[in-house]
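Form 7-S
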Amino acid sequence: MIRALWFFILLAGFSYLAARLADNPGAVSMDWLGYHVETTAGLLVTGLVIVALLLATIFRIWSYFRRAPRRMVRARREWRRRRGYKALTQGMVAVAAGDAQEARRLARKADNLLGEPPLTMLLSAQAAQLSGDDEAAGKFFEAMAEKPETEYLGLSGMLNQRLQDGDTEAAMALAEKASDLKPKTDTVSATLLDLQIKNADWEAAEDTVRKSIRAKLTGADQGRRRRGVLNYQRSIEAEAEGRLGDALQMAQRANGLAPSFVPAALRTARLLADAGKRRKAISIIEEAWVRNPHSGLARLMEDLAPGGTPPDKLHAIEKLAGNNKDHVESHLSVAQAALAAELWTEAREHLDVIKTENPPGRFCRMMAELEEGENPNSEAARDWLKRAALGDPDPAWICGNCGNVVAEWEPVCGRCKAFDTLAWDTPPRVTRMEDAREAAPEPDDAPLDTDTNQGNR
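Output:
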């Protein structure tokens, strides 16, 4: 639109100038190289315009031929670039399809056409890996790691190779370099943390978690929890080395970072008690009980009870339970201590509060002990023991990743090797074969395809 407007403006200007020259032709006289020329102003201007146009045309033709070789080189380079990128794309498709031979052929073609090794080395390395030539792939990755634009890709490839070879020491060094180069990459950060945990390098692992939090790869709450677990492990390590002061300091840090992490509270309280700081230890247990009542806290509180007699322990547990008096664990812990002190009435009061139609095994065992000790009623005690066998098992540490059940908390699951996946919960109850047979349908009610159903069972 703007160009058209300018065209019409210039056309109008030239038309006006031509009209003015036509109305006022004037006279021009010139002597040059022995020639005398007389003409009108309009004719002179027209001649000058024609000469200028001829000179411009000649200059453009000369420029075209002068630049032709350069244009040909540029066109050929563009043609090779397009074919090279097409080969590169087709090579990536071949890698994804698992065609190693085609991927290697296209990698060589792309390399010849593009002449830019950083663009084709990754495809060449992947093609070599696909064909099982790990040595050639390693050379490509090493070459990539030497170039700034592909250094991260080279390190990542070498890291994966070292992980496959089981060389954790070399893998950790490569993961650290890759993490320093790209600190905001979640994959490398997670790999580095996993390697540090497997090598029990808790201090370095905590530093990695801090960097992950700063890079916003890990949430603040999850990061604090992980740091708490790692400090807990550092406390265990320090205690094993005889550094009790450091062990207590790291346990307190772990408890502060993850207040709901019961193992950290237990360790902190125990180390405080061993250091002669009984009141502080009790305070830690009480604070933990408010957030997360746990049977381990109750057992430790009994150990810290002054006097050590069953009534003393009961008094300590009652005081502890008062911090979260409506919780089921509070009633169970008081009832257990009352049974140990042979205070049957108090034990029954707390058990009656939590009595249900399908009580857990721990509750049933307490009721059996109560019936045997209070009356004694052996028949009622046996009935409760039978119900205990059918009730839910006692809570334990269960891996949320694979379902592994262990009695003591561990930082890494012994089965799936996942980090910090154990949670205190009730394990699933295994149905006995007798119960399964009783619950099975009668032959008359069973489906016709009995063989298939038997196989599924």
